[in-house]
Write a structure and sequence with these properties.
GFO_IDH_MocA-like_dom, six-stranded parallel sheet, seven-stranded mixed sheet, Gfo/Idh/MocA-like_OxRdtase_N, Dihydrodipicolinate Reductase, domain 2, alpha/beta, 13 strands, globular, 2 domains, NAD(P)-bd_dom_sf, Rossmann fold
Length: about 325
Amino acid sequence: MKLGLAGAGRIGAFHAATLNSATGVETLIIADTAVERAKQVADDLGCTAAASIDELFEANLDGLVIAAATDAHAELITRAVDAGLPVFCEKPVASDVAGTVAVLRHVEQAGATVQIGFQRRFDAGYLAARETVRSGSLGWLHTLRATTLDPAPPPAEYVRSSGGFFRDCSVHDFDIIRWLTGQEVAEVYAVGSNRGAEYFAEAGDVDTASAVLTLVDGTLAQVAGTRYNAAGYDVRLEVLGSQDSVAVGLDDRLPLRSTEPGVEWPSGPAYPMFMDRFHDAYAAELRAFTEVVRGDRANPCTVADALESFYVAEACELSRRERRPVALAEVRQG
């Protein structure tokens, strides 16, 4: 198959390497608004660079992977759908709920296939936890505890256009909670704080946040995150049931030290960043996309899935700003 890649930045270059070696991908063409960047990535991999996004769309592709800047996602998805191409796009679908709803309607009307990049769905630990939940061996769930702790904050220019902590960072936790439990979120209560760089507050954002989600069956999910966890990149999920409990992310590279006497675990080097922690998951989700393009599997993460998680993020941001519980019904559109 011939695939196109729009975006050759950090995650785009990583995806390019994965796609270039993926089974069934005979040709990979890379484009970026920074033409020299696309050419450099293509030269490093021995594949082809397009001179522009327009040229990429004229290349008779079988599918398109979008790893461009967030503000380009909606337009590129729509353009690819109109060209009859299966699409993989990194989250978010669009920068706001209205834009996401508009893309979803366009995709549904066209009967198109658009896979959204929530890579935790392809991580071995999360997959095993989901299977355990679905087996019933945990009994009924009462609590989930999710954390996403970044080792260092992103630059100010990124924060200004990120959409805020819940939409940019915690949305991964929201998606995995929905996917793992099979339950939707009914209500949220969220708070946030700023004790680090001033540019978070200046952008109307926070550097640390927590939220309590009430799922439709009454299960409670606690989601916490920060931009300041210098010990390392720490992503975990605890799933607590009436009969048993499991955890994702408890491996020897966990950036958390025990103060108990004689306990030396974990002893490995901490994960420095998200691409190290989820290296295999990122590769697996793109392999899944090639299978989707070939028609060998169903879409594993739809635009509708992304919208549901975005609704949770939107409700959390409203809750944080207004200091009150927010039902998901308040932020739903359409």
